[in-house]
Amino acid sequence: MKGRIRYCPTDKTYTLSEICSHCGNPTITPHPARYSPEDKYGLYRRQVS
């Protein structure tokens, strides 16, 4: 387990585990992806959003 905080979108709680202890659903990272000016796929990622 890493020391990164994670977020459960189902019950909107923060935790350190990969699985939410309240509802049992997988958690996600609340941090945005890192920005790089040399990102080859940035144009495609912005078109999808």
Automatic annotation (TrEMBL):
<dbReference type="InterPro" id="IPR036756">
    <property type="entry name" value="H/ACA_rnp_Nop10_sf"/>
</dbReference>
<dbReference type="GO" id="GO:0001522">
    <property type="term" value="P:pseudouridine synthesis"/>
</dbReference>
<comment type="similarity">
    <text>Belongs to the NOP10 family.</text>
</comment>
<keyword id="KW-0690">Ribosome biogenesis</keyword>
<dbReference type="Pfam" id="PF04135">
    <property type="entry name" value="Nop10p"/>
</dbReference>
<dbReference type="GO" id="GO:0006364">
    <property type="term" value="P:rRNA processing"/>
</dbReference>
<protein>
    <submittedName>
        <fullName>Ribosome biogenesis protein</fullName>
    </submittedName>
</protein>
<dbReference type="InterPro" id="IPR007264">
    <property type="entry name" value="H/ACA_rnp_Nop10"/>
</dbReference>
<dbReference type="GO" id="GO:1990904">
    <property type="term" value="C:ribonucleoprotein complex"/>
</dbReference>
<keyword id="KW-0687">Ribonucleoprotein</keyword>
<keyword id="KW-0698">rRNA processing</keyword>
<dbReference type="GO" id="GO:0030515">
    <property type="term" value="F:snoRNA binding"/>
</dbReference>
